[in-house]
Structures are given as C-alpha cells and as structure tokens.
Q: What sequence folds into this?
C-alpha cells in the first residue's frame, strides 16, 4: 500500500518526495480531476494526500469520493503557505454529524 500526493506547489512535493512519497503538482480543476481519476484506478495506492488549495478547487468531487469510496483514503494536508484550520473543519463535520455544537 502506497501514499500519493496531489499538491499545488513544488515545495510540498519535494518535501514529500524526500520522505518517499510520489506525487504530482497540479493547478487547475481539470488537472486535479484527472490526477484523482488516475490515483483512484490504481489499486496499490491506499492514501492520497491533498493540499488544502487542491481540495478547494473541487470540494464537491472530493467530498463525494470521501463518502463513496472505501479506498483510497483522501486526506487534506496544509502546505507551508496555507493557513488551513483543519481542527475547525473537523469540529464542523462532527457537529453536523451528531447535531451538537462542540
């Protein structure tokens, strides 16, 4: 089982590459969708890391894949330029799921 990165900048890709994670740098929605389709069709890839900016290019598709697919696991990661508030996003997801504000 492998990790794969879909990033919007070369710095994140290079850092992950040093850790042994292959990946691609894309910028446009159609490039992101093509990269996702390629990754999803590869049975060796278990986890796809995606920078926040990439997820924001097609949040509807990423959300649909997260709900519909059991593999690969799509994980949003902040990059060095991002100010992602992942904790707040997780709180919002939990609040919507259980109906209680955290």
A:
């Amino acid at each position: 089982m492998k990790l794969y990165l879909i990033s919007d900048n070369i710095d994140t890709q290079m850092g992950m590459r040093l850790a042994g994670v292959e990946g691609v740098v894309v910028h446009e929605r159609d490039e992101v969708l093509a990269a996702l389709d390629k990754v999803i069709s590869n049975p060796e890839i278990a986890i796809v890391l995606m920078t926040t900016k990439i997820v924001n290019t097609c949040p509807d598709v990423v959300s649909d894949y997260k709900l519909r697919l059991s593999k690969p696991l799509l994980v949003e990661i902040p990059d060095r330029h991002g100010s992602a508030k992942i904790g707040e996003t997780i709180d919002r997801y939990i609040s919507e799921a259980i109906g209680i504000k955290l």
